[in-house]
Amino acid sequence: MEMEKSDKTPMYQYIMNDIKRKIAAGELKPHDPLPTQIELAKEYNTSEITSRRALSDLVQEGFVYRIRGKGSFVHDNPSATDSEAIRVIYFAHRNHEVGTFVHPFFTDMFDGIREVCEENGIIFYMWDMGEDYNLPDDPHAGIVLLTLTEKENFDLTRLTAWQEEKRRFVTVHFYYPHLGIPYVIVDNLTGGYLATQHLISQGHQRIGIVLTGNSILDLNQEFSLRLQGYKLALSQHQIPFNSDLIIVIPGEDERVVMGEEGFKRLMALPDPPTAVFATSDYKAFGAMNAAREMGMRVPDDVSIIGFDDVMLSEYSYPRLTTVNQNTRKLGKRAAEILLFEWGENGAPLLKDEIVPTLTIRDSTAPPSSEK
Predict the structure, then answer these.
(1) CATH topology agreement for domains 11-74 and 188-324+358-370
(2) Which member of 30, 239, 301, 354 has the lowest number of beta carbons within 10 Å of its beta carbon?
(3) Boundaries of every domain in the chain
(4) DSSP character for 271?
(5) Superfamily per CATH, domain 188-324+358-370
(6) For the structural domain made of 11-74, what CATH number should be given?
(7) What is the largest CA-CA distance in the chain?
(8) Is the distance from CB of 211 to CB of 254 less than 8 angstroms?
(9) Could you give the angle at which helices 221-236 and 188-201 cross, rounded to 10 degrees?
C-alpha cells in the first residue's frame, strides 16, 4: 500500500516517510540496499537534489547508512533514532606526540575513518586520553582506540572497565582477543611473507632481515609477525632459516640510522646476503645510505625492500620497493564496525585483518650472479 502525498508535504519528506513506512512494515529489512538517488528520483518523479536530501536526512536520523562505492542500506536497528545512536567517532590515543600521526599508517587510516563518517553524517575527532585514561564524556560516542604507547604498557584494566561501562570501542593496530573486544589490524604476517616472497621470486636465497626490538625474543606484535612471514616464505621454498641473517636493532621509533647499522652488520658476515628486508621504509633508507657509503650499488650489488610505503619511498634513489599496509581500509572497517555492527548488546568479537599489498619499484632485482 503506497502512502498518499499531502500537497503540503515537501517531496523529500514524503520520500523519507515512505521509506520509513516500508521499514516499519518489514518491506525493507536491515541491511537491504535502497535505490540510488537517480532511481529514487525516477520512482517518485522528482529531482535528484530532492532524492539526495531524502537519503541524507535518513542517514542523519539513523534509518540508513552508506558505504562508499556500494550504496545506501537500511540500518541494523532503524528504530534507534534517539540519543543513543552514534553521532561522533573519536580516534583515542594516550600521550602521543602530534608528529607521530604524520606517518602514512595513521594519515591513511584517518582518511578511511573520515570517509565513512562523511558518508553517514558523523563527526570525527582525535582525542588524547592523557595520563588518566579519560575518554570523551559522551557515553554513546564511538571510539577507535590506539593502545600502543610510546613508553609503557597500556593498562588493560581500563579496557575491561570500559567494557563494563558499555563504551563502544574497537582497537586498531594491537589486539586483545581474550577480552572479546572487536579489532582491526594489518596482517603483518602476510606483509612479511610478501616482501620475502618477492625477493625469493627474484632468485635470492640469502636474505637478511632487519627488525626493531630488544632481541629476537623481545619483539612487539607487528615485527614478530613480519618475522613469521619471512620464515614462512623461506620454509615454503625449502630455504634453510639462518639466525645469522636476523638483525635486531633496539629503538623506540623507526630511524634511518637503525637501517644503516643493520645493513653494515649484515654485510660484515663472512657470507653476506644478496638481499635485505628492512621492516620499515626508514630502515630501508638507512640501508641504502650504508650501501652507497660502502661502494655498493642498489639493486645491482644488493636488493633492498622496505615496509610502509611512505611518500618518500617513491622519490628515493633508487625508488624503493616496499609493502603498503592499506590502512585506509583499516580505518574504514573500524568506523563501519562502530556504526553498523554494534547492536543493543554491543558488538560480537569481530576480527578483521587488512591484507597489505606489494609495491614494486627499482630497489630490487635478481642477484648479480644471475644477471
Answers:
(1) no
(2) 30
(3) 11-74, 88-186+326-355, 188-324+358-370
(4) S
(5) Response regulator (3.40.50.2300)
(6) 1.10.10.10
(7) 88
(8) no
(9) 40
Identify the residue whose cell numbers are 545506501.
72
Q: How distant is the alpha carbon of residue 117 from its chain centre?
A: 16
- Copy the grid coordinates of residue 125: 575527532
Q: What is the pLDDT of residue 229?
A: 98
Confidence (pLDDT) at 2: 52
Closest among 20, 124, 90, 116 to 62, alpha carbons compared: 20
* Nearest C-alpha neighbor of 113 from the set 339, 344, 307: 339
Is the pTM higher than 0.70? The answer reads yes
- Cβ atoms of 124 and 113 closer than 8 Å: yes
Residue 148 contacts residue 101 (beta carbons within 8 Å): no
CATH class of this structure's domain 88-186+326-355 = alpha beta
Cα(229)–Cα(273) distance, integer angstroms: 18
From CA 19, how far away is CA 16, in angstroms rounded? 5
Place of cell 520520500: 15
| Average pLDDT per consecutive 10 residues, the chain (371 residues; last block may be shorter) | 60 90 90 92 90 85 83 76 73 91 94 91 93 91 88 86 92 89 95 98 98 92 95 97 97 93 98 98 98 97 97 96 97 90 65 94 89 47
β-pairing verdict for 142-146 and 88-93:
parallel
pLDDT for position 151: 63
Q: Which of 283, 284, 266 is nearest to 206 (CA)?
A: 266
